[in-house]
Amino acid sequence: MAKTRSQYVCQECGAVSSRWSGKCEQCDSWNSLVEEAVSVGTPGGLGKKSGGRAAGAGGGAVLNLVELTGAADPPPRLQTGDAELDRVTGGGLVPGSALLIGGDPGIGKSTLLLQTAAKLARGDNGRKPAVVAYVSGEESVDQVRLRAERLEAADAPVQLASGTAVRDILSTFDGPTAPDLLIIDSIQTMYLDTLESAPGTVAQVRGSAQELIGLAKRRGTALILVGHVTKEGSIAGPKVVEHMVDAVLHFEGERGHPFRILRAIKNRFGPADEIGVYEMAGDGLAAVTNPSALFLGQRGEGGGPAPSGTAVFAGIEGSRPVLVEIQALVNPSPLGTPRRTVVGWDTGRLAMVLAVLESRCGINFASQDVFLNVAGGLRLTEPAADLAVAAALISSIAKQPVPGDTVLFGEIGLTGEVRPVPLTPQRLKEAEKLGFDSVVAPFPPARGKSKRTRSALNEHHTKHVTELTAFLGVSRRAKDDA
Ligand code: TYD
Ligand code: MG
After folding, report:
1. Which is more confidently placed, 330 or 9?
2. Which residue in 67, 146, 265, 349 is a FRET match for 138, CA 20 to 30 A apart?
């Protein structure tokens, strides 16, 4: 009988401590430590100490050391037939690898995966049908079947099971008949009977993930794990699982909006900043091939009158240009400390843009509430959005609309300088395609013989934020009146 001892594991960050305390010393969350029994010397126990054995002691096999140069084939891919998912994963699922997909409850993770399972199993788009297994720990077989009917996927030969015991999953699939794709919905419902802690705890999630990943590696199966997300938006509990898998995707969206964004957070086999855009309809998720049109929504195709406080940013998400509307509302504040509320952008970045506008353009936001929103539920991370944010802010405080046919992009520095950003031609092309007529942006100086061809847009080259206020027709006097 193996000896057991207690340890306390933070359910937020996975930190292990030998004593209980009210607050996790690692991540400062309260009441997150849960007692777990560990049997000393359990197989697969992560973080096992080397038990006093001197480092470098014998017993192990000698590693086969090779040079960095040498043939390395790109991994084979299991293309899903879902163009968005294939792009986000960098060309399809990789056999023998594990992918974790996280997202708020009800955002559509199970829907996306069931659709994908059906596409692969049917061999849509003339591909060879793949063997796909879908194990649900959250829903009964009947519930999954009902969903499949709604998605018109009920005819697909997907192997479906409801279960939560990892031992059963291993007995079923760990053999020569292992599927090409195994979907586990969700990892938080899975448990290993060799561990004493409850399902959903860090130890169980970590242990179950490890066993399932082992199965995938042994059998060359592509594994997809669904992960729940905490209130703070990270995949619940164990950061460790994010380290164990090869790719992490987030499925995001605003409730009440039909758009969903699939974002690669980590990808060992492809780019980590790609997004896929979907629209949730009554019969499942449909890929959105023109996200700009979606995010600009009712704004129309450009040219129409735009309300003050809005500006269109020509951004890049992953490898694709995306136009989005940035909305600002600047209002005199009744509060001693005015409000700064941001949806879809970085609060610190907003503070910086406000400070630059105050000190370099003399626009005073000190007694104003500032609300900033990226329309359509997209989250922007590019510094290139600075110039469009500044335009929306100036436009709102001066009650002077930004011309509706104009897109903006550019990074703002602390001295008020506007810096060129990557992929300028792609941004211009997308703006042209969507019917915009002019652009306000910094342009990189033409270098040597590779002269930049001008776009069909009316280009307003901007090197400093003061040129932006001039473009918007906001004089210093108007700013003082505001
Ligand atoms: P679901 O895939 O169950 O979310 P998750 O697995 O991330 O928790 O999505 C459930 C939501 O999606 C639910 O509110 C209903 C909605 N939905 C549709 O709008 N259309 C559909 O075809 C389906 C299957 C679900
Ligand atoms: Mg689900």
Report:
1. 330
2. 265
